[in-house]
């Protein structure tokens, strides 16, 4: 019988195993805060980004975003990324949206969304809005 050929396994040096990876992109959505009173209440989420990738202006950043800004960012990504399918955001919540468990579920959904989007190579290299949304306190969505 023919012997199946296996790819050659390269041994890593200790330096390679413990060296800083070539591309780091870590995104966390943390620290939700609810603001306002009554009908004017809303929740913001802190986006913490750590990277060494050249497509981002800052290696470490932290910005706050409302869900409505995530929606605008999502729409902008869909318009500029014709070849990439943009994953959906966690759904709109109309009742009891300020309960801790509801806010935590949304936080997790927003974090997963950002990690998927930011991890896509075409979006990383071609998006005009990704780094701005993740890093710029002055992010201004276009209509």
Percent range for β-strand residues: 15-25%
What is the percent of helical residues?
25-40%
Number of β-strand runs:
3
Please give the count of helices.
5
Strand order of the largest sheet: 1-2-3
CATH superfamily: Phox-like domain
Shape: elongated
End-to-end distance: 65 Å
Rg (C-alpha, Å)? 19 Å
Task: Give the CATH level 1 class.
Answer: Alpha Beta
Binding site for a 1,2-diacyl-sn-glycero-3-phospho-(1D-myo-inositol-3-phosphate): 66, 68, 92, 97, 106
InterPro entries: PX_dom, PX_dom_sf, PX_Grd19_PX, Sorting_Nexin
Subcellular location: Cytoplasm; Golgi apparatus membrane; Prevacuolar compartment membrane
Pfam families: PX
Describe the fold and architecture.
By secondary structure, the chain is an alpha+beta fold. It has a single domain (22-135), classed as Phox-like domain (PX Domain), CATH 3.30.1520.10. Helices cover 35% and strands 20% of the residues. It has helices at residues 14-18, 67-80, 100-118, 121-126, 130-135; strands at residues 25-35, 42-51, 60-66. The protein has a 3-stranded antiparallel beta sheet.
């Amino acid at each position: 019988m023919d012997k199946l050929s296996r790819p050659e396994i390269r041994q890593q040096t200790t330096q390679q195993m413990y060296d800083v990876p070539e591309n780091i992109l870590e995104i966390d959505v943390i620290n939700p805060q609810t603001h306002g009173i009554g009908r004017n209440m809303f929740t913001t989420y802190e986006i913490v980004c750590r990277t060494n990738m050249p497509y981002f202006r800052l290696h470490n950043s932290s910005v706050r975003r409302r869900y409505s800004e995530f929606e605008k960012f999502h729409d902008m990504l869909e318009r500029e990324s014709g070849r990439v399918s943009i994953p959906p955001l966690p759904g709109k919540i109309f009742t009891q949206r300020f309960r801790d468990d509801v806010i935590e579920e949304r936080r997790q959904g927003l974090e997963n969304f950002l990690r998927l989007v930011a991890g896509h190579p075409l979006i990383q290299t071609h998006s005009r809005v990704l780094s701005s949304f993740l890093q710029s306190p002055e992010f201004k969505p276009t209509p």
